[in-house]
Design brief:
five-stranded mixed beta sheet, two-stranded antiparallel sheet, 285 residues, alpha/beta, 7 strands
């Protein structure tokens, strides 16, 4: 059993494989055939991606084991990395360490929710010192977390949930965000991230949040729009989606208040630099 600040790379349990079968069409036979077909498609393409089974499953699970769809997702990733090469080329954990260790803007919960999904909170208000951390740096940190999350079979199958906390947001935070940054983030989430994004929850939004939402709204597609929920300070509304037993007291839950953060999680990233280097090699031939 992995510790609280570890990546869970354990093989899927029988229960988890049943979820994969029901939601992703995954069976040993379907998996083997899809891996073989994706290898063929990849070899005949202009893409350069590792073709070991563990790596290919990262793309096959979110596309429900349709090889053509997995290849399209790979192409989206390659296009995205090319478009934002200045931010993402050879990006390593050390490049975003201050965002995790010094500022604690992003926190992954040590527990999963009632559906086995990874939970993450992103602080976009009072914890965000816009003079020290830019919008670009936050994105680079989120992109780095994705590289680690895809290593977990349980997260590949069950997906992830993100909570955006806007407590204490002021006009300075609004000015630190841009239309181009919003477009980049939503393109990543909707087209170039091989993770099942199951829900995005917004909490503690102040009145000026409408100005932020106006940046993002034009780029939100229907599928993601149905998975976005706005709760304000009403944590009871959040509990309709994530029961209190799976949330810390910071969000009206019964678990202890968060006493850990990016500082505790950062060493995990350093443990997987070999995989991250492998991930960074993906793109066009």
């Amino acid at each position: 059993m992995p510790g609280p600040f570890e990546i869970d790379r354990s093989r899927p349990s029988a229960e988890l494989l049943e979820v994969a079968k029901q939601e992703l069409r995954e069976t040993p036979e379907v998996r083997a055939a899809a891996v073989e077909e994706l290898r063929k498609l990849l070899k005949a393409s202009d893409l350069n991606f590792p073709d070991d089974e563990e790596f290919l499953l990262i793309y096959l699970r979110p596309t429900k084991f349709y090889p053509e769809s997995a290849l399209k997702l790979m192409r989206n990733v390659a296009e995205f990395n090319k478009s934002y090469k200045d931010l993402l080329h050879n990006l390593m954990p050390a490049d975003v360490k201050p965002v995790f260790v010094d500022h604690g803007l992003i926190n992954i919960f040590t527990n999963r929710d009632h559906k086995g999904r990874r939970l993450m909170v992103v602080h976009m208000g009072e914890k965000w010192n816009t003079k020290e951390v830019t919008e670009d740096q936050i994105f680079r940190a989120l992109y780095t977390i994705q590289k680690l999350a895809v290593l977990e079979p349980a997260t590949q199958i069950n997906g992830a949930v993100v909570i955006y906390d806007f407590k204490g947001m002021g006009m300075g935070h609004v000015k630190a965000m841009s239309t181009s940054g919003a477009k980049r983030l939503l393109t990543f989430i909707q087209e170039a991230c091989p993770l099942r994004m199951k829900a995005v929850h917004f909490v503690n939004e102040p009145m000026i949040f409408n100005m932020v939402w106006s940046l993002f709204k034009p780029f939100v597609k229907e599928k993601l729009n149905k998975r976005m929920f706005f709760h304000g300070e009403k944590m009871a509304k959040l509990h309709e989606h994530i029961p209190k037993d799976y949330l810390p007291s910071n969000y009206g839950g019964t678990l202890p208040a968060l006493d850990y953060g990016g500082k505790e999680w950062y060493p995990v990233a350093e443990q997987f630099t070999e995989f991250i280097t492998k991930w960074n090699s993906c793109g066009f031939k």
